[in-house]
Specification:
The chain is of the alpha/beta class.
Length: 878
């Protein structure tokens, strides 16, 4: 490219358009695939420029573009620059208030809008003198009109200086209020020249345009660079993966400019299809590992040959470019292993935007590449990346203070932290402003922590923040996964998964708490989390919930209204109920409330629902749809609150009752006694078992022993702590997955274990427990719901309160000491360790005790909390 390339964008554009006037500039879909040549594109841009002149536009005036990606967007942009005005591209997803603020700040005179933005644009300019131009149909209406007079054209373009402002682009605001970045013709042209010089995009390429053009990354890589080269640009028909892939193949796309999220979706889709081939899935996954190893060591791409069926869907694609956010190295490695090539780069709006790019012949996963030929990169003493070069912005519009804070002695402070390795490759470690400083003084990059926890399939999105000096997470669950895996209590399930991962991490990287959020987290158009918005997200959501209106359709649908009444009687706070409301996240339903809901629905509609119903439904619409399936259009309706005692009185099924044996044959009793003695002896010898205050266990009547839970040994320890006479009348709830074989089922029978899955069949677990109590037997329950990860006593679930208060039986608190050392979570072998068991006084809660119950906590949870305090006291004595 010659020295004239830095003169102006219109100069280069017109030169290329004349040279390649018959070559296709754009492929776009409008009911069918259509094309525009460079000659037609040039005429369209010039005709739009003529229209702008007729509106009395002057040099430097700001003209906004608020429209979807389409050839007309590009033509409008070129027309603005031909007139030597300044383009103000604005995110088409912004609401009218956001648009209005940016229009006022930029002092925009004219707006180009599209069909999808018309309503918000017109609302934003109410009462103003801003003129608007509709881009819809511009190709058909304006392309064939008389082009801008050539003499007028030549009189306009020479007056454009390289330092004239081509665009004011408002940053998408990951850290606060958007600022208007002033980018000159020289900024854009020098950056385009540097990208072209990398020699990965050529005149013969066809670049797919997916990302919104108002952002500098797709603007540069899917518009300006291809136009400067005379390449083809193909607009994706939609954001649906199937249509994107179809466009890549049908239109001969060679380069896809993407963001990490899109590459993750492609990777996940490919691997999901592989895993569905159950017979050979493991072999294919191992083959991918081999291909990846060979690719990393020698750059020999055998994956493209072995997985050619995958590549058929992508036609002649050369590579994916990745930018806009940090790419997970694992995603790059996986895609390269199956034969794709990933080139990651880096830049900011303030640098026009590209400043680094991975060389095609030597790519480093995790690195954003090396600086372009006209860029200098260095790091400050505190690790901040600094950039210098002709693509660095002129400054922030009407904000000299911010400009001086960002550009110091010609060096742009990027706000990103990172390092440069010995080969000159740059690695980004995080955002300087987003570093979390814990109360311990430890600095944490939230992305590093998020990456670890996103391995949990139940997590769709996660944002790590700081709360009270500790790491806190805001999590968007994957509701489809929850439904597929029959997860009824998402919060509880996540708690266990998070704890399991936390135990493998250093203390400072562990999440200490989390909130669930039912909607996508706020992000920039390129997928970066807007972290500054996340902290206040949940508070804002609660406020919005209180002013939301109920779905009008529910009031008209008699069937739906009846379902809503069943939900409403269970809720503590009367808030509007919408079809999209998630039972747990929006309406506050826990596992026990779900059981109450099932009972209410069964009574209201005179139906019998399957035991899995509580985990099959996630939101209100799910409940209505499923009830309609079972009840048809029955009009029977009795909306009332079902009391827990009514639920507990229901008899278990015959199949479940067969799992509980209250009488044994003589031979069975003999075997049970021998096993009991062996167990007792083993614990005495191996663990030096000591039992304290066993006299607190009642001699007669039913009761519940409630203990802490840290090990698989705990149930055996409680059993070994009792005399055989007591053991004969006590039963244990056990996870069904451990007792599915014939031998283990028989062992469960002799050991008084009732196999059940409380995660899916919590109602059954409670009814089976009540069934045991009603038959004058006793129970041993671990109210935490699972084994602790760190020997601490976790919160008790309120199910123990339901049983104790509704069945009016005493609960004996117990504390087991030593089993965590003997066999903690994750351990494969038992260690000899001293084990002790402490039994406390029976717990009853009188009316005076209940009077102390704080507001907002129901009596069942209050009982569970008080019981936990008793166990904690026992642990302190131990």
């Amino acid at each position: 490219m010659n020295s004239k390339i830095v003169e102006s964008i219109p100069f280069i554009f017109q030169t290329v358009a004349e040279k390649y006037k018959d070559r296709i500039a754009f492929n776009y879909f409008d009911g069918s695939w259509k094309t525009i040549t460079y000659g037609e594109f040039s005429s369209l841009a010039n005709n739009i420029a003529s229209l702008l002149f007729s509106y009395g536009i002057n040099k430097g005036d700001r003209v906004a573009i608020i429209a979807e990606n389409m050839p007309e967007w590009c033509a409008a942009y070129m027309a603005i620059l031909i007139c030597n005005c300044t383009a103000v591209p604005i995110d088409m997803q912004f609401g009218s208030d956001e648009i209005k603020n940016l229009l006022e700040d930029s002092e925009t005179k004219i707006i180009f809008y599209g069909a999808k933005t018309k309503e918000n644009v017109l609302k934003a300019i109410e009462g103003s003198s801003i003129k608007v131009i509709n881009l819809d149909g511009a190709v058909e209406h304006w392309s064939d009109e008389k082009p801008l007079n050539s003499s007028l054209h030549h009189s306009i373009t020479p007056v454009i200086s390289p330092d004239d402002i081509a665009s004011i682009i408002y940053t998408s605001g990951t850290t606060g209020k958007p600022k208007g970045v002033m980018l000159t013709h020289k900024n854009f042209c020098s950056d385009a020249e540097a990208v072209i010089k990398v020699n990965v995009v050529t005149h013969d390429d066809n670049v797919l345009s997916i990302l919104p053009l108002h952002h500098t990354y797709p603007f540069m890589c899917t518009f300006l660079v291809p136009v400067f080269l005379g390449s083809v640009i193909t607009f994706a028909p939609s954001l649906k993966a199937v249509e994107i892939i179809s466009a890549i193949k049908r239109r001969g796309v060679t380069i896809v400019v993407a963001v990490p999220r899109l590459l993750e979706l492609i990777r996940d889709s490919i691997f999901s299809q592989i895993k569905q081939r159950k017979i050979i899935a493991n072999a294919l996954l191992k083959l991918i590992d081999v291909c990846g190893y060979i690719r990393r060591k020698s750059d020999i791409n055998i994956g493209r040959i072995i997985f050619k069926t995958v590549h058929r869907n992508f036609g002649i694609l050369k590579f994916f470019a990745s930018g806009g956010a940090r790419l997970d190295p694992a995603v790059m490695n996986d895609l390269e292993a199956v034969g794709f090539t990933i080139l990651e780069g880096y830049g900011l709006t303030e640098t026009s935007p590209v400043v680094t790019f991975n060389p095609a012949k030597k790519r480093k996963p995790g690195s954003v590449g090396k600086p372009l030929h006209n860029v200098e990169i260095k790091t400050s003493e505190d690790g901040e990346i600094m950039a210098k070069g002709p693509m660095v912005m002129k400054g922030y519009f009407k904000n000299e203070i911010a400009t001086k804070e960002t550009i110091i002695n010609g060096w742009l402070l990027t706000g990103d932290t990172g390092y440069i390795d010995e080969e000159g490759f740059i690695f980004i470690t995080g955002r300087k402003k987003e570093v979390i400083v814990l109360s311990s003084g430890k600095n944490i990059y939230p992305e590093d922590v998020e990456k670890v926890y996103t391995s949990i399939p139940l997590i769709k999105e996660i944002c790590i923040t700081e709360k009270d000096g500790n790491l806190h997470a805001v999590i968007v669950p994957d509701f489809d996964y929850a439904k597929k895996e029959l997860i009824g209590n998402i919060s509880e399930a996540l708690g266990w998964k998070i704890n399991a991962i936390s135990m493998k991490l250093p203390e400072y990287m562990r999440i200490k708490g989390f909130n669930l959020y039912p909607e996508p987290l706020p992000r920039t158009p390129l997928g970066k989390l807007r972290r500054f918005m996340v902290k206040d997200l949940l508070v804002t959501k609660v406020k919005e919930l209180k002013v939301e209106k109920e779905d009008e359709g529910l009031k008209k649908d008699e069937f739906g209204r009846k379902v809503i009444e069943c939900i409403r009687v269970l809720m503590k706070e009367k808030v509007p109920i919408k079809l999209s409301d998630n039972l747990e996240l929006n309406l506050g339903f826990d596992s026990l409330m779900r059981i109450e809901l099932v009972s209410a629905l069964e009574t209201a509609f005179s139906v019998s629902l399957p035991e899995t119903f509580v985990v099959e439904v996630q939101n209100v619409q799910d409940v209505i749809d499923r009830i309609r399936e079972y009840a048809g259009e029955k009009q029977t309706f009795e909306g009332r609150h079902i009391r827990w005692i009514e639920i507990l009185k229901k008899e278990p099924s015959n199949e479940d009752m067969r799992k509980v044996v209250f009488s044994f044959t003589n031979s069975e009793m003999l075997i049970a006694y021998i096993l009991f003695l062996l167990q007792k002896t083993l614990f005495k010898i191996l663990f030096r078992l000591k039992v304290y205050d066993s006299h607190n266990i009642p001699v007669e009547g039913s009761y519940i022993i409630a203990s802490n839970h840290v090990s698989f040994l705990d149930g055996f320890v409680i059993a070994a702590s009792l005399p055989f006479k007591t053991f004969k009348n006590i039963y244990f709830l056990g996870f069904q997955k451990y007792f599915i074989g014939k031998l283990t089922s028989h062992l469960a029978r002799l050991s008084h274990v009732i196999p059940i899955d409380p995660d899916i069949y919590l109602n059954k677990a409670l009814q089976m427990s009540a069934y045991v109590i009603k038959n004058k037997k006793s129970l041993c329950i671990f109210p935490e719901g699972g084994r602790s990860f760190d020997d601490s006593i976790m919160p008790f679930k309120k199910g123990i309160g339901v049983l104790a208060l509704e069945l009016n039986i005493p609960v004996i608190p117990a504390f087991i000491k030593g089993t965590f050392e003997a066999l903690p979570r994750g351990a494969k072998f038992i260690k000899a360790s001293k084990v002790e068991v402490f039994f406390g006084m029976p717990v009853y809660l009188s009316d005076s005790d209940m009077a102390k119950k704080p507001g907002g906590i129901d009596k069942y949870q209050f009982f569970a909390d008080e019981l936990r305090k008793k166990v904690i006291v026992l642990s302190e004595h131990g």
